[in-house]
Amino acid sequence: MATRTKLQDVDPDMATESLRALLSETGIVFPSLADDRASPQLGLVVLGSIRADVAIRLADVIRREGREREH
User: What DSSP designation does 35 have?
Assistant: First the structure.
């Protein structure tokens, strides 16, 4: 099980780049992926908009990962 990290322990820019790299490994690109510089105290990452086919591919990756963890 993944450990939860406290908000103050996570750098939004690092989180954004980590997510970008992981998505890239699966061939998925979120064109608008960025850390939210307008409200740094919240530590938000903006996922932005993606095409419907990318959303389906992302869902497939998440579903497949969930099934692998069950076994």
Answer: E
The torsion region of residue 61 among left (phi > 0), alpha (psi -120 to 50) and beta comes to alpha
Whether the pLDDT of residue 15 is over 60: the answer is: yes
**C-alpha Rg value of the chain to the nearest Å:** 14
For residue 31, what pLDDT is reported?
94
Q: Indicate the average pLDDT of the chain.
A: 87
Q: Which residues contact 47 (CB under 8 A, 6 or more apart)?
A: 30, 32, 33
Q: Give the residues across from 46 on adjacent strands.
A: 34
Q: Which amino acid is at 5?
A: T
Taking the whole predicted model, whether its pTM rises above 0.70 is answered as yes
- Round to whole Å and give the CA distance between 44 and 35: 6
